[in-house]
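Here is a tokenized protein:
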Amino acid sequence: MGKSWGLLISMLVVLTLVINSFEVKMASAKLSERACKEERRIGVNACKPILYGNIPSPKCCERIRLTHIECVCSVITPKLAALIDIKRAVRIVEGCGRRVPRNYKCGSITTPP
């Protein structure tokens, strides 16, 4: 995985975990790995401009709200977490109109207190 792709997926992961941790979706069945992989792919494509310093588009914010938290937590390794500017991620999420839960752990990331 290239560094820029890794950074983008990690940013999407942080944005998704922060939003979805506050609005946990209860599903009767666990999503398949294939479905999760597709959610991540769509989200990465929708949110690419964030990687270049742009604000999230309405499409990106929508994608962040729709992606299931269980699809992203499993891919947050310490190596991926090291690429994330968590303060920037929090600003982006709040820019999408969502409250950011504090001290939330997902994979190798914990949101600030």
